[in-house]
Amino acid sequence: YANFFKTKDERVKSDLVELVAICDNDPAKKDKVAEDFPGMPFFDNYLDLLESGLVNAIVTTVPHYEHVGMGIDALERGIHLLGEKPAGVYTKEVLRLIETAEQNPETTFAIFFNQRTNPLYRRVKELMEAGAIGELQRATWFITTWWRPQGYYNQSNWRATWGGEGGGVLVNQAPHQLDLLQWICGKPEKVFAKMTYGAGRDIVVENEVNALLDFGNGATGSFITCTNDLTGTDRLEIFGTKGKIIVEDSKKMTLTQLKKPEAELSENMAMEDVMKLFMGQLDADEMYTVTTEEFTQAFGDQHIEVINNFASHIVKGTDLLAPGAEGINGVRLANAMHLSDWLGQEVAYDHDSDQYLELLNERIKEEGKFDTKA
User: Fold this and answer.
1) Which member of 18, 19, 61, 323 has the lowest number of beta carbons within 10 Å of its beta carbon?
2) Whole-model pTM above 0.70?
């Protein structure tokens, strides 16, 4: 995110944000920082940065397992935290991070869910909260636009590993959608998932996921994602008792609203109208309306908005777009999907976190490259 400041981007419309130091354990980055930001303090150890007195907030753009430890170290020193997604790899460690934030209420803990700033998804959430399509009956997200060739996984030895990254597509590419699905539709109660590990790639983690969700009260859902589809699809469909919302390519939203609840239309439709329906003679305008909205957003705007909101919350008390404590929701859902596949059965969304960690550590041991987790 330092590049936003490098260009003096006019979209960083906040006098509350200033880049004052950079930390990276890659020695080559020191010369790069000196070139891009002459005179900028550079650290190769994050604890030295936290103890320097130069910063009062940090962004953790580091491998997943480092998110929690670095976050806790910052919060305990009274330094505000904007954590990258995911909040952590497994719920037990994320709970430690949340508890630390609660024990240090003078600090701000937010998470980089930049998709929450997307006006399209904010509009969808607004419609759902207003009951525009009635009660949820089904939510399906087909998000397979994450194509990654083998070279992507080869660039770092921690990528696509259980001990270094904590999983595959569910912890790397899809956390934004796992967050949005719950943010918009609510948390599921149960999960059943089937996965493929290393489909067409020399990796050990999941890169093909097909999950079924049970939201309770008869509402169901599905979540399909992968990283091996070169011509992937991005389609979110939310079906309710009074209509439907369809989002295509995260750019276009089609809202269909029934004039009356579907159950009422079904109950009161005369056989004469049923025949007209079958013959295509029924006037659709008498039954529902369809509206379409398209959204555009410049590249980088979402990240900038999260940073500015984070700073505004610290200084002015503005409501956070993505409170850090909510980061556990997507982690819990990803963990539930993993656990379901590992056990070959449906599992509760609020599953046994100890069992999950035990099975995760079994995979880390089998991998033989990293220490197990606690």
Assistant:
1) 18
2) yes
